[in-house]
Amino acid sequence: MPISMLDQMLFNLSCDHKVVLGRLGGAENWTCEQCQKTTDLSYGPYRATLDKDLDTANQIDLQEKAKGNTVTRL
User: Fold this and answer.
1) Where exactly are the structural domains of the chain?
2) DSSP states of 15-57 as a string?
3) What is the tens place of the pLDDT at every residue in 17-59?
């Protein structure tokens, strides 16, 4: 049973730490759990990258579902 790409892909924060992509859905800001630096996800390169990565993950999940697989979110 495939695990959702939202739970597998990582997103680079402004502090160079990473967070699981699926945790960022709908977030406008994210405070890094390692260093406490906040990344503004509402505009600029972070917004564009986040939107692109979320779309990519969703498309991969849809392809798996189209093959008849159940995609599991963790």
Assistant:
1) 5-66
2) TS-EEEGGGGTT-SEEE-TTT--EEE-SSHHHHHHHHHHHHHH
3) 999 999 998 899 999 999 999 999 998 999 999 999 999 999 9
